[in-house]
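Researcher: Go.
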Amino acid sequence: MHSSGNMRSRQISGMAGVYYVAAELSRLGYISSVTTRNAKAAGIVAMNDKTSMTVAIQVKTCDVSTSDSYWLLSKGDRQKKPINFVYVFVKLHKDKAHDFYVAPAQFVMNNLQKDKVKTGSEWYYITKDRIIPFKQKWDEIKRVTTRALRSP
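Model: Structure:
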């Protein structure tokens, strides 16, 4: 069980990650909007001003004090997402630039791992070694917001 202080710290770190991603998107020329805390799945919706196409972004954050060898996900992350859905995994650092890993939802869904712990609960996660090719790959946002979206 997490202490309330630890839970609060994780929530703050998570929101910091969302706002760092929104800031980076703005720096790259996207119009981005942070969703409310109770919005399902997407923490940010961003739009390419040139194409008016949008991308839904789920942000997962590891703060300064935690390992970045994996990011926790949920059972819902195993479900198929729309073609314009992207994950950004963030590692916050104290004394250097933060790391961003921008991965397509399909890739995350296909590389999600699951472990059952002693209590019987299931943990869903993705490891850093799987997402390392997506470090600083903001072109994934451009790819999603510049191509014609077609029904499968």
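Model: The first helix runs from residue 4 to 27.
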